[in-house]
Amino acid sequence: MIKRSGSSRVAPADDVFAARKRKPVPHEFVLDALAPLGPETRPMFGCLAVYVEDKIVLVLRDKPAPAQDNGVWLATTAEHHAALRPEFPSMRSIEVLGSGVTGWQVLPAEAPDFEEAALRACALIEAGDPRIGKVPGERRKRGEAPAKRAVKKAPVKKAAKKVPVKKAGKAAAKRGGKATAKRGS
After folding, report:
1. Could you report how far apart the first and last alpha carbons of the chain are, in Å?
2. Residues 69 and 56: beta-carbon distance below 8 Å
3. What percentage of the chain carries pLDDT values higher than 70?
4. How many CB atoms lie within 10 A of CB 52?
5. In Å, what is the CA distance from 120 to each residue of 8, 33, 127, 169?
6. Residue 176 above 60 pLDDT?
7. Which residue has the higher pLDDT, 134 or 183?
8. How many whole angstroms separate alpha carbon 139 and alpha carbon 146?
9. For residue 80, what are the contacts with CB-CB under 8 A and spacing of at least 6?
């Protein structure tokens, strides 16, 4: 028998070698469609984020609650919504991200044209459409404050060092001549 570290419970030997159960990939046909691009996936908020090169392009979601946000999330910005709406009539803001318009949009799984719309999004990504995809910001450690953006400041001119000047005597002043300055040490 093998003991688990930090625990007094004894685990059966079969548990040690059992493979960890993986969650099924939601909407796996999307990854199949993007396969020529060699997408990478990473877990994100209990969903599956899809990256192509350095951009996050989609998030695949299929969770029990709230079910209205299940489907394919498009990484886009509010400025592209109007241009994408004719191609994706069922596209809408993601409700779990809060009220109002969000940059991210969802192609809802319950929409009658879901698979067709998701495959259309994949075709746009494959064509390099700039409306879909975001380069994520630099990651920071938990609890760390966000980095402040560097602001370019105009170079400050330093004042020239004042060098002590020896004053000419009263005689030079009486003659109306200019005193010559000698640099001191």
Report:
1. 85
2. no
3. 63
4. 18
5. 54, 10, 11, 91
6. no
7. 134
8. 9
9. 131, 132
Structure tokens at 10: 């004894």
Number of H-type helices and E-type strands within the chain: 5, 8
| 1 has a pLDDT exceeding 70 | no
Instruction: Give the integer Cα–Cα distance in Å for 80 and 83.
Output: 5
Coil, strand, or helix at residue 118?
Answer: helix
Greatest pairwise CA separation for the chain in angstroms: 111
Contact 122, 88 (CB under 8 A): no
Amino acid at 56: I
Q: What is the mean pLDDT of the chain?
A: 80
pLDDT band at residue 8 using 50, 70 and 90 as cut-offs = very low
On whether the pTM is more than 0.70, the answer is no
